[in-house]
Amino acid sequence: MVESYKIGEVAKQTGVGIETLRFYEKSGLLDRPSRTASGYRVYDASIVDRLAFIKKAQVLGFTLDEIRELIAHKRAGESPCKHVRAKVKSRLVELDERIRQMSLYREELAAELKQWEKKREVAGHVCGLIESSHIKHPAAMVGKFGKKQ
Question: pTM score, two decimals?
Answer without folding.
Answer: 0.70
